[in-house]
Write a structure and sequence with these properties.
Elements: H1 20-37, H2 42-45, H3 48-65, H4 69-75, H5 78-98, H6 101-108, H7 123-128, H8 131-144, H9 148-154, H10 158-180, H11 191-201, H12 203-214, H13 221-224, H14 234-271
Helix pairs in contact: 1-3, 3-5, 4-5, 5-10, 5-14, 8-10, 11-14, 12-14
Length: 272
C-alpha cells in the first residue's frame, strides 16, 4: 500500500496496489462540490443529465489518478503522464462543473455582483474567475508542472506528485469556470468571447507538445531512467506524449467550442 502514486523506480508489475490517498482526495472533491459549492440539497434539484455528468467527472478523475494509470503516469511513461493531464484538465474538471451548475448558480448568485467590477461581496469570486486571471493561472500551472527539473524533483515524492495532480485540477476548474458557470457574470463575455477564450487560453499546450515532439533527447529523467513498462523507447514515448498534448487537448477544446456554438445558435433561433 502507498498513500499516493509516485515514481518509485521499481520494476513495474500488474499487481494491484492500494492508494488510499487517491480515494480520499476524490471523495473529498465530490463532497466539497456537492456540499459547499452546489449546496445541500442540490443533488435532488439537479436535472438527471447534470447528475450523470458529475458522476462521470468524479469517476474519470478517480480512474486518472488511481491504479494503473496513476502510478504509470507518475514514474514510468511520459505519454501516460500526458494522458493523465488530459483527463484531469479537459474531461474531469469541466464535467464536475457541468454537474454542479444548477446548485452553484443558486448558491453563488447572491455572492457575485451582476456585472464585473460592481459591488464588494462578490469581488473575490469575480477576480478569481475572471477570464484573464483564470487563463493566466491555468497556463502558469501548465508551464510549471511540465518543466523537466520540476517534474524530476516532484514526481518521486508523495507530496510532490500530489501537488502536481492537485494543481492540475484546481487550475482546470478555475479555467473552465467562466465558460461553464453562470456566476459571476462578466460584460462582453458572451459565447463568441468564450470560444476565443478556450482557443487562445490553451495555446501553451501547443508549445509544450511541439517541444516534446521536436526534442532530440528525452526531457524527463524520471521517465527516461524508469524500468520499462511496454516495449517503447523513451524518445518515442515522449513524442507520443507530445501528440497527446497537441491533438488531445485540441480535440477537447474543439468539442467544447462546438457545444457552445450550437447552444448559442439554438438559443438565437428560439429567440426569433
Amino acid at each position: 500500500m502507498q498513500w499516493w502514486c509516485t515514481a518509485t523506480g521499481e520494476v513495474w508489475t500488474w499487481t494491484w496496489r492500494a492508494y488510499p490517498g487517491v480515494w480520499l482526495f476524490v471523495a473529498l472533491v465530490a463532497v466539497v462540490f456537492r456540499r459547499f459549492v452546489a449546496g445541500p440539497g442540490s443533488w435532488s434539484r439537479a436535472p438527471r443529465a447534470e447528475r450523470l455528468m458529475f458522476v462521470a467527472g468524479i469517476v474519470s478523475l478517480w480512474l486518472s489518478l488511481d491504479w494503473p494509470l496513476g502510478p504509470i503516469a507518475a514514474g514510468y511513461l511520459t505519454s501516460a503522464h500526458a494522458l493523465q493531464f488530459l483527463i484531469v484538465t479537459m474531461i474531469s474538471a469541466p464535467l464536475i462543473l457541468l454537474g454542479s451548475r444548477t446548485g452553484t448558480e443558486t448558491r453563488l448568485a447572491s455572492l457575485a455582483p451582476a456585472a464585473e467590477g460592481e459591488g464588494s461581496r462578490g469581488s473575490a469570486a469575480v477576480l478569481l474567475f475572471h477570464p484573464i486571471f483564470a487563463a493566466i493561472l491555468f497556463n502558469i500551472v501548465v508551464a510549471g508542472t511540465h518543466v523537466p527539473g520540476v517534474v524530476d524533483d516532484l514526481m518521486p515524492t508523495v507530496a510532490g506528485a500530489f501537488f502536481v495532480d492537485f494543481a492540475w485540477l484546481v487550475g482546470a476548474l478555475v479555467f473552465w469556470w467562466p465558460v461553464i458557470m453562470p456566476v459571476p457574470q462578466y460584460r462582453h463575455f458572451g459565447v463568441p468571447m468564450k470560444i476565443l477564450y478556450l482557443l487562445v487560453g490553451t495555446l501553451f499546450h501547443t508549445v509544450i507538445g511541439m517541444v516534446m515532439l521536436s526534442a532530440s533527447m528525452p526531457m524527463y529523467g524520471v521517465y527516461e531512467l524508469a524500468p520499462p513498462v511496454f516495449a517503447i523507447h523513451p524518445k518515442a514515448d515522449q513524442q507520443l506524449a507530445g501528440g497527446i498534448m497537441e491533438l488531445g487537448v485540441f480535440l477537447a477544446i474543439v468539442i467544447g467550442c462546438g457545444v457552445l456554438f450550437f447552444r448559442w445558435a439554438e438559443a438565437d433561433e428560439k429567440g426569433r
